[in-house]
Amino acid sequence: MKNSFQVLVVDDEADMRNLLEMYLKKDGYEVLFAENGEEALDLLFLNKVDLIILDVMMPELDGFTACKKIREKYLMPILMLTAKSDEWDKVNGLKLGADDYVMKPFSPKELLARIEALLRRYNQAFFDVFSYGNITVQKSARQVYVDDKKVNLARREYDLLLFLMEHEGKVFSREQIHEVVWGMDSDNESYRTVDTHIKTIRFKLKSAGVNIKTVWGIGYKFEGMET
Question: pTM for the full model?
């Protein structure tokens, strides 16, 4: 299960980034890196991140400010790192939206155990229901809501929308979409099937349909966050 998770490490110290990379990759995680909060925000927009390890003391945009900005848009767990033992740092970080706190130097086993616990807790809480803007999906009921109003989607329409939403920001060709949603080889006729379903989904979602973007010459993507 852990191998499917991607962790963003935000720390201005190269030695610490290398150390965390070694621990995380050995435990099966994929890893992204940022040297400050600004870089972290850019990476979050472009990548699916499951958990953030965020250092407190950084140039340009410190960990506290970055945590606050991240929480304005994103729900993934945030684990903060600090070299300080000041209780105020811990309380302030938690108030700003951090989920846990680890002090340097730390035990690798403790760090990995805390990461696993956070991911388990978040997946239990958010796996079934998630939202982008005014669109909410309840996966256990295979139900979609826009502005809290139920939207009736056919089976393939729901599967297609869910696939795009779960890969928010990533572009997929008609062939890729058809193979995932329909599970068959694609041809010109199947491309038209994808286009037709996209058109129908947009119509049913009404104003929220603008979140499904056409990428000319390639295919489609779901863009749920404002830039």
Answer: 0.55
